[in-house]
C-alpha cells in the first residue's frame, strides 16, 4: 500500500489546491503519471510535499536513509520485450554460424555445408577473413542506429521506424538464405557476393530496429517522480524510485535478448551441423515474422513519443552557441571550459535578451541537453569494453575449434554467455541488487560500469591463459588453428571467460542502455541510444586494426593486449567521471522540459 496521509499527520498545509477529501482518498500503487506537488504536510517528524493524487514525496533525509524499490512494469513493456526476443533470435541465430560459414571450407561431398561428425563450413576463406567480415557486420549494425534514430526522432516516430526497419531486415534475411542454398553455396564467388549484399541490407534493418526498441520499451513506464510507500507485510517505509524501475525494465529487456540469442544460436548451430547453412538462415527468418505481427496487434496500446521535427538541429545550434568564447586549441583548457558551470547556464533562454529565432525551447531543455552531453562523454569509453565483448563472437569461437570438443560443435560453446545471463539476471534483480541496497551501498550506474570493465578484464586474462596452454599442448604447437588434431584440453574450460563476460554485460552493457535512456531529453531518446550503440561500431573499427593478431602464433598477444586495455580503460573511466557519479540523483530528478519540438514551441503545461 502507499504511504497514506492521516489526519494526525497534518500539522501545516501550504498552497492547498485540492479539496479536503483528497487527503483521505486511498492511493493506488500504480498510476500512469505522477502529478506536480500541490501542498505540504508534517509526517514522521518531517515536512513532506504531496502530489495531487495523495502520494507523499520523500524528503532529502528520507532519500538518504530509506531503501529504494522498483515499481510495477506495464504489460505493454512485456510485448515489446517479446518482439525484441524474436528479433534477437533471428539476429543471433543467423550470426552464430557466420564464422564457420566464412572461415571453414565446404566438407567433402557436402552441398549444404553440414559437417555431421566433422567440421561444418562453406566458403573456406580462413580466420582473418571471417574475423574481418564478422567485425564489419558488427560495425555496420551499430552504425545504422544513428540513421534509424534520426528518422524516428524527427520524422516517423519510433513505431513506424521499427516497422520499416523490419522490412529491410527481412530482405537481408532472404538474401542470406539464398547465399546458402545448395545450388549457390557450391559456387563460392556467387555465394560470398549474395552473402555480402544480404549483410548490408540486413544491417540497415537491424540498426534501425535496435536504436528504437530500447526507448520504446522504457517509455511504456511513465512515472517520473519518487514517492514514499509502506510495504504491507513489514510496515517498512521505502521510496518507489523510477530509476530503479528503469533498471528493472532494462534488466529484463536484456534477459529477453539473451533468451532469443540462446534459443536461436543453439538451434541454428545444430541445424548447420546436421542439415546445412540454408536451414540456419531460414529458421531465424521465420521467427522474425512474429515481430511485425505483435507490433501491429498492439499498435494502439503503446505509449509513444511522436516525431519532433528539427530538434537535432536546435541541439547543434545550442552547442555551437555555448562554444563561442570557450574554444581553445589547448585540450586541457578546452576541457576545463566545457566543464565550467557557466558553459550551459549562460545560453539558457532566460539569460539571453535578444534570443535567436530558433531558440524556442525552455531553460529545462538546456539542462536536459547538458545531462545528455555528460552521458555521451561516458559512452566514449565504451569502445574499449566492446572490444573485449567482441572476442566472444569471433576469436573465442575459433579458439574452441582447437580444443577437444567431444562431438559438440565449436560454435555451440558461445551460448554459455546468454545461458549465464538468463540465470543470473533474475538473481541480480531479486537478490543481489536489493541486498546491496539494504546494506546501504549506493550502487550507481557509473560504479556498475566500472565493475563491468573489471569483469571483462578477468575474462580476457582467462582467455589468455587458455590460449597459452593450447599452444603448449597442441601437437602443432603455436599453430594450433591449422592443426588437424586438437589440443587435449576440454573445450568447456571456456566456461570461465564466457561467464565472466556475462557478468560484465550485466554491469556494463545493461547499465549503458539504462544510462542512455534516463539521461536523454524526451525528444532525443532514440538518438542518444544510437550514440551509445555506435560505440560498438567504433570498437569494431578498432578491432579491424587488431585482425593481424587474430591468427597463430599471435593469439596470446591478442587476448593479453585486450585485457590490459580493459583494465586501464576501466580505471581511467572511473577517475574521469568520479565527480559525475555524485550527481546521479540530481541528474535523474531534473525538472522535465515541456519543449517537445512539435511546432517549434514549448508545449503548454497540462494541469
Automatic annotation (TrEMBL):
It comes from the Eukaryota. It is a multi-pass membrane protein. The chain crosses the membrane at residues 133-152, 164-184, 190-209, 249-271, 277-298, 372-392, 449-471, 491-510, 531-550, 556-575. Keywords: Membrane, Transmembrane, Transmembrane helix, Transport. SUPFAM superfamilies: MFS general substrate transporter (SSF103473). PROSITE patterns: PTR2_2 (PS01023). It is found in: Membrane. InterPro entries: MFS_trans_sf (IPR036259), POT_fam (IPR000109), PTR2_symporter_CS (IPR018456). Belongs to the major facilitator superfamily. Proton-dependent oligopeptide transporter (POT/PTR) (TC 2.A.17) family. This is MFS peptide transporter. It comes from Paecilomyces lecythidis.
